[in-house]
Amino acid sequence: MNTKRTLATTLCSTLLLFFGSCASQKTLKQYQDEVRVLREERTQLKKENRELRAQNDANETAMAEASMKTAPPTQVADNSELNELGLDYGTNKEGYSFISIPAEVAFSSGKAELTKKGQEALKTVARVLLEQHKGGRFWIEGHTDSDPIKTSKWESNRDLSIERGMAVLHYLVEECNVPDAQCVVAGHGQYEPLAANDDNSGKARNRRVEIVVHKR
How far apart, in whole angstroms, are the C-alpha atoms of residue 148 and residue 188? Predict the structure, then answer.
């Protein structure tokens, strides 16, 4: 009797272990399948996210380009004071507004210190910039003729053009309240002439400091 009971107990235990093992394997497989599905879904979501970001970037670029194409060019309104000072102004070939200050108005020959006439001219220029182009970015660009530097302290025309641009910057910022953060200085030397450097008239046109207005 005891032997039969022992056999029955052993058989029950074996059956429980067998079915328990099957149940565990089934649960593990289900878990593995769920993990695989979740990974596939995550991969798909990442792909869709990348595509959406790429499309968004493309849309923003297209909108920016369209805005640049349709935005009217900045212009300096007709100004009798600028005319009387002998300053040139208008819109350049890139569509940017500019005011050009001849070197003869602002500087002595071969110098980078502003003359009294140059300072008075810059006061008028500053008023125009602050009234008509508030918030713009002002590129202060120095230019020279092609005559090589001989007698002054500058090693090259580019050095002279940069120093003249810096002199204009300092006066506009320190004396005329033009925000320094809105200004950029560049020195082109003789490399962007308005006219041929064949005679004194052409050279005089090329010696200048231009303030070019860029929209932010």
Answer: 14
